[in-house]
Amino acid sequence: MIEALKKLEEDARGELSILPDPKSFQDLKNKYLGRKGLFASLSAQIGQLTAEERRLAGQEMNRVKSALEEIFSEKERSLAAQGNASVKKIDTTLPGTFYAPGSLHPLTQVTQDITEIFERLGFRTVEGPEVETEYYNFEALNIPLNHPARDSFDTFYLENGKLLRSQTSTVQIRVMEKTKPPLKIIAPGKVFRPDATDATHSFMFHQIEGLMVDEGVSFADLKGVLLSFAKQFFGDKTKLRFRPHFFPFTEPSAEIDIFWESKAMPAGRQGWLEILGAGMVHPQVLRAGGIDPEKYSGFAFGMGVERIAMLKYGIEDIRQFFENDIRFLKQF
Amino acid sequence: MKLPVVWLKKYVAVPAAPEKLADLLTLSGTKVEHVEKKGGEAVLQIEVTTNRPDCLSILGLAQEVSALTGKKIKFPAVKKSISGANKEIKIEIQDKKGCPKYTARLLKGVSVKATPPSFQQCLEWMNTRPISNVVDATNFVLFEMGQPLHAFDYDKIQGGVIVVRRARKGEKFLAIDGVEYPLDEKTLVIADAKKPIAIAGVMGGKLTEVTSSTKNVLLESAYFDPPLVRQASRRYKLSSESSYRFERGVDIQQVAAASARARDLILEWAGGREAGPMVDKDFSKKVKEKPILLHEERLEQLLGLKIPAGRRVQIFKRLGFKAKAASRGRLSVWTKNSRRDVGQAVDLAEELLRIEGFDRVPAAIPVTRHTDTNLQDKKPKGISELKKFISHLGLHEIITYSFLSKKSLADSGFQSFGAIQKITNALSAEQEYFRPSLLPGMLGAVLFNIHHKASSLKFFEIGNRVADGKEETVLGIGLYGDLEKNWQKKSAASFHDLKGVLENIFHFLKITDYGYHTSGIPPHFENASGVFWRGHELGNIGTIHRSILTRWDIPHDVIYAEIGLDPLWAGAGPARTVRVKPIAKFPSVRRDIAFIIDENISIDVLESLMKNAASPFLQDTELFDQYAGKNIPKGKRSLAFSLAYQKETGTFTDQEITALQDRVGEALKSQYRVEFR
Fold first, then answer.
1. N or C end of chain B: smaller count of CB under 10 Å?
2. Do B371 and A104 touch (CB under 8 A)?
3. pLDDT value of position B423
4. Mutation target among B27, B48, B51, B56 for the A interface, most CBs of A within 10 A
């Protein structure tokens, strides 16, 4: 009898420890401690024992009973604590309700991505005014009056005689006037040109200008910096092609094409695509900035933010940037 | 500029495949935009940069090809010209600066008819309509040599005299296109005894045009001042193959040669004879071609590429420059008339590099010497961070046009247009003014989205405006419709939501000492506050006036703030470093206080009153309820604050707290006669 009680206790502990799921807890409890449970039927056999045996078995029965009650109630508490027994259900599939996220304009994102790459290369972000003078927009940049070179930099004029910059190169002069080499700057900003608006032209757009001036800066440095930028921005396999070009403020000047083979692009837009203008700063421009071209050399580059953003995000119409359609903005 | 390959082949050998030629030209700076087939032949479309007028001719491009391939150029043979005086041709140059060189030939007894077909084909490749042998000869030479020419019907020149002068007041000119242009006195014209017969370098006149009945031709070849031609072309909106070349500058030394070449072609195609020598009026300054010295080390240093001495000389010679090795490591290259863009050492460097190939230069990462610390403008970086922060608050950044229409300004409540900068050469009435505020752009963006069924908009823009003659960077924020709308919560955006956004922004910028006021609010708003910081008026926040919304046809409230950002980064700016206050050792005690008070008394006034009354123990006053309406007298409101008392040296007794609370109550009562609840 005593042996049987001990085994009963052991079995109960064993079964309880491998309880398959909380719902079967009550069944298990009934199996051992119910009115017709194993303990009850075992204790019914006590009448068949001698008085001495009955006294010892009685003691053991009391011990086992309280032990069983203890382990079952222990288990019940731990099940309840796990929350599986009686917590109110919520529907976890309902959508979250925290404030909806906002967004940065795609032109800002591209500008930040680009300036951050150049900042890692040691360039410093600066800015210049949008309302400018003839001097900073043209003269100091070696663009003479009544020269066809001005055609590419047609400009809006204000009633106060000033103009709206048609390029961010204006910042070059302003920085050089204040700061002596070595200098490495990057200048993002808005520019304005009286171009008729269509899918690829806008009278207002954004440029990023870069400038490095120091002793011994070479065309090889320009290539290295732009290649490093292009690989970080467009991907490791990016190829660049430098083509000779003409800008009044650099000599030699180059236009830079990127080899574009994105699968997402239509067939006609794959291949070499112009993305940058650059060159070695013209000695005349260094002089205008108060820097001795005999001692220092430098390079400058400029790129259109809209064009790069259009390539990057697959945007077909430049006007989308300025419509501010929330369905467009939310995608960024 | 179009380049028919078969025409080019007359002067220089070219690679077999047109695509190969195109690549060669593109990578040396003469960009081929595309190759097309025209009349069965390949024609390259070339973008010629403004510094290279020499490439606006087939022979000029032949020079480029020759430099790239090393093949020799075969120039067309030109017959000798007779020199001497010509009594029949009378030429008077009144503006010698505007016209430093003018030549004329007289060709008599020509028969004007069609040009031989092979030459007509040449012009068709250039998109120029063949007209007649005489006119076509001038156009052929224009494309071949880059020198524009003009043929006049000599018998229609009044008085048989050519005068180069500025137009007279009130003079009119009937152009070859049949349009009559009133001329201004700046315009350089070719005139006969009576009237202008051409705008110099731009367009010929109808009255002296060569026609089928023309017998005698006066052939003009000249050099006109480029800026004058450019101004005239722009003023009369007349652009021609001639003006395009003159304004970029033709080679003055080719003026006579081009005339001789055209004469040969006219006499060959139209018969006739040259009547006497060519008249050459030359007032140009004789430019002495000077050598430019190129230093080997500096060249290498600038380009990051070593080009051997022999190769350097070869490149310049093939480009038609006179070049000679000078002392050790030096090279002398003489300037030349056809390449006025080459005038200093860097120009020579570019010539070398573009022929050698930009791809020959290795890419190198420059060594960064650290820049001096005087580039201390923290604003660009600060604004970049601020934009990120605001977008993380759940707002969407917009970028609106900086140009506004008069209507959008008037609809936004702007009345005095004198103070707003007008664009003098605006493209349209939509883009006439430079924005004095970001508000019209914001309302435009809101309206655009309402038209596309949006019911909740949270927008911000950071950009420049020009107000009171000053360009400033400002932040505009607009809330429209629901601030939150989901299955749990729905609330319309309110003034206080935007005020909370603003306070978050100030916290992000580590600005604590700002304040609000309600005086001098612009009329765009109803229910608004001014925001100031350290004596700077930063801007305003408020609900846009109903009348403005009505004009824009915006159905619900727009809450808008426009805040100037420049002062925040000017000078030292706010102290960005937080100084930590010690955490109190003893727990604070909270007591509530609720009262009814005149609704005009502002919360911050009450808060400072209470804090003063229980100073220094009252640490925090938190408004937790505001009520007006039922059971509250009109003009009053009920306010409830939770007051937190704090002592650094220990805990309070009940009596101490009650005494402090009484002091607060007394102060409120004596100052505003509040009624406690």
1. C
2. no
3. 94
4. B51
What's the pLDDT band for B578 if we cut at 50, 70, 90? confident
**Residue A179, Cβ density class (10 Å: 0-12 exposed, 13-18 middle, ≥19 buried):** buried
| Cβ–Cβ under 8 Å, residues B250 and B143 | no
**Partners of residue A315 in chain B, C-beta under 8 Å:** none
Instruction: Convert the pLDDT of each residue in A31-77 to its tens digit.
Output: 888 888 888 888 888 888 888 888 888 888 888 888 888 888 888 88
Question: Are A160 and B427 within 8 A, CB to CB?
Answer: no
What ipTM was reported for this prediction? 0.87
Instruction: Compute the distance between CA of residue B221 and CA of residue B105 in angstroms, rounded to an integer.
Output: 9
A234-275 pLDDT tens trace: 988 889 999 999 999 999 999 999 987 666 555 555 678 899
The residues with which B46 forms a beta bridge, in sequence order, are: B32
H-type helices in A25-138, by residue range? 25-33, 38-43, 51-81, 106-120, 134-137
Residue B244, classed as helix, strand or coil, is helix
What is the tens place of the pLDDT at every residue in B220-279? 999 999 999 999 999 999 999 999 999 999 999 999 999 999 999 999 999 999 999 999
* pLDDT tens by residue, A204-218: 999 999 999 999 999
Domains located in chain B, CATH noted? 2-69 (3.30.56.10), 90-282 (3.50.40.10), 291-359 (3.30.56.10), 379-569 (3.30.930.10), 589-676 (3.30.70.380)
Say if A44 is an interface residue toward chain B (CB within 8 Å). Answer: no
- Residues near A172 by Cβ (< 8 Å), separated by ≥ 6? A141, A187, A209, A211, A249, A281, A285, A289, A300
| Dist CA B400 CA B411 (whole Å) | 17
Q: Name the strands in the sheet holding B330-334, side by side, starting at the edge strand that comes first in the sequence.
A: B291-295, B330-334, B323-325
Contacts of A112 in chain B (CB under 8 A): 384, 387-388
The tokens for B532 are 């100031």
Contact of A106 with A305, CB cutoff 8 Å: no
**Would you state the pLDDT for residue B457?**
96
- Which H helix or E strand runs over A321? helix A320-323
| Residues recorded for chain A | 332
| B373 — pLDDT class (breaks 50, 70, 90) | very low
CA atoms of B35 and B2, how far apart (whole Å): 10
Give the number of A-B residue pairs with CB atoms closer than 8 Å.
248
pLDDT value, residue A84: 54
Nearest to A124 among B226, B248, B375 (CB): B375
- Stretch B540-566: mean pLDDT: 96
Alpha-carbon distance of A322 to B95, in angstroms, equals: 51
Find chain A residues with C-beta within 8 A of B64's C-beta.
none
Give the DSSP H/E element, type plus range, for residue A260: strand A250-260
pLDDT score for A61 = 86
Strands of B59-154 (E only): list them: 90-93, 101-108, 149-153
How far is Cα A137 from Cα A213, in angstroms, rounded to an integer? 20
> Which of B464, B405, B422, B436 is closest to A161 using CA atoms?
B422
* Segment B322-348 mean pLDDT: 90
How many whole angstroms separate alpha carbon A222 and alpha carbon A242?
A: 11
Contact B103, B278 (CB under 8 A): yes
> pLDDT digit string (tens) for B169-210?
999 999 999 999 999 999 999 999 999 999 999 999 999 999
- How many other CB atoms sit within 10 Å of the CB of residue B634? 7
Shortest Cα distance, chain B CAs vs residue A105, angstroms:
5
∠B30-B31-B36 over CA atoms, to 5°?
115
